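If you are new to this repository, start here. Below is one unmodified record pulled from the training split, so you can see the exact layout before writing a loader.
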Amino acid sequence: MNDPHSSPISIHKSGLNLARQAVAEQDKSNWPMPEGTILAGAGRRAGALVIDMTLMSAVLTVLTRGRIVNIWNIDLIISQDIHYWVAMVAILSLSFWLYFRTTGIFFSRSLGQRMFSLAIVAEDGSEMTSRMWDERSRGKLLFLIPLFNIYHAAYEIQRIRQRHTHQSNLDRKIGSIVVISNSLPPALRRHLR
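And here is the target side for that same chain:
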């Protein structure tokens, strides 16, 4: 009976039970974010997007003297003036793409995200590349499609809430995360404006 292998009950001196071992394995994941960084929730991100969309819509309404609203005029699509509608779609799409890309490159966030103290960074906390901003800006254009934008927003909010990384599908695709800007270490905040 002195043989420790003969007993069906064994005592582990490490002090870890199965639950603690599982948590310890999860802690060894390859999440490269610095400790203390706070990931942005869906509510803040949605609020920032609403502000961005409202701001850009107001600017475009002023610049086009209100003609941009003709993009929702169904009669234009089935008339001989469809080229006018196509021009408005091109103006709207290009403007939003340029807005998100330009603010991303210069500020590392949009103006709405800046108001909510959010920052967009690569998964390791470093500054995003120009290619990443191109892809992110292109992905934001899905929010311009009427009715589909409601479904898309609800779907992305659900993904943000489900993932421990708070990443939307677009974030996962390009390798970015949205964080509370003040929670980043000072060395990783240098590019934020």
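Two things worth knowing about this chain: The longest strand covers residues 118-122. The chain has one domain: 36-188.
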